[in-house]
UniProtKB/TrEMBL annotation:
One of its GO terms (biological process) is monocarboxylic acid metabolic process. This is 3-hydroxybutyrate dehydrogenase. One of its GO terms (molecular function) is 3-hydroxybutyrate dehydrogenase activity. It comes from Noviherbaspirillum sedimenti. Belongs to the short-chain dehydrogenases/reductases (SDR) family. It comes from the Bacteria. InterPro entries: 3-OHbutyrate_DH (IPR011294), NAD(P)-bd_dom_sf (IPR036291), Sc_DH/Rdtase_CS (IPR020904), SDR (IPR050259), SDR_fam (IPR002347).
Length: 264
């Protein structure tokens, strides 16, 4: 068990009721941070999740159901976090959605929704978190991009555009705050077996009349040389490291955790 290096800090993790966001939230809680959860899901399950994380790690937790495609709701989320815990010390922009289609067939409303949730929401949370971070001269902004912030894949125009945008936003945020105690970095995961990716596995299995295991194997084989999924826990450990003093000169980085995907 790691030390409570983040005791007294508050972390807001968007899209944290499942998958990567939940893995990062749990790791930050294990390091002592209070957690503001955000995301969709059954309210009873989310309530149980909050309680279990609070009890397991001895931290305080809160939840806000802001729709990350709406600026007004994001403002309400940030205000809620500040009222609850004083300020957001660690901001993890993780909320994301996906749609797969060729550019000429891509539904315009899907493009707009993906850009809003995967990119614009991070601009809103960042602009609202920065004043308090700068006042304290300490803050960590961690943007969960993707290998698709570094390379492209067919049929993912909106997602790839949004994730490349997140990498750019990360660099600018880091540069603007380079002489302060506020850092901004991006984590770029490869395939992680999240509910979002499981849907793609299921679709592949159905289309090819394959077993789920075979569909997973094929998915990994195409892109991820290790042949293994990245875990939310691995990404969580990296997030905790980025919050440490050891990482205080890591600024504007895009750290791919991808089983060798981008090395090819």
């Amino acid at each position: 068990m790691q030390g409570k290096t983040l005791q007294g800090k508050t972390a807001l993790v968007t899209g944290s009721t499942s998958g990567i966001g939940l893995g990062i939230a749990r790791s930050l809680a294990a390091a002592g941070a209070n957690i503001v959860f955000n995301g969709f899901g059954d309210l009873k399950e989310i309530d149980a999740l909050q309680t279990s994380v609070a009890q397991e790690f001895g931290v305080q937790t809160a939840y806000h159901n802001a729709d990350m495609s709406k600026a007004g709701e994001i403002e309400a989320l940030m205000k809620f976090a500040a009222e609850k815990f004083g300020a957001v010390d660690i901001l993890v922009n993780n909320a994301g959605i996906q749609h797969v289609a060729n550019v000429e067939d891509f539904p315009v409303e899907k493009w707009d929704a993906i850009i809003a949730i995967n990119l614009t929401s991070a601009f809103h949370t960042t602009r609202l978190a920065l004043p308090a971070m700068k006042a304290k001269n300490w803050g960590r902004i961690i943007n969960v991009a993707s290998v698709h912030g570094l390379v492209g894949s067919a049929q993912k125009s909106a997602y790839v555009a949004a994730k490349h945008g997140i990498v750019g936003l990360t660099k600018v945020t880091a540069l603007e705050n380079a002489q302060s105690g506020v850092t901004a970095n991006a984590i770029c995961p490869g395939w992680v077996l999240t509910p979002l990716v499981q849907k793609q596995v299921d679709a592949r299995a159905a289309a090819g009349n394959l077993s789920n295991d075979e569909a997973k194997r094929q998915l990994l084989q195409e892109k991820q040389p290790s042949g293994e999924f990245v875990t939310p826990e691995q990404l969580g450990s990296l997030a905790v490291y980025l919050c440490s003093e050891a990482a205080s000169q890591m600024r504007g980085m895009s750290l791919n955790v991808d089983g060798g995907w981008v090395a090819q």
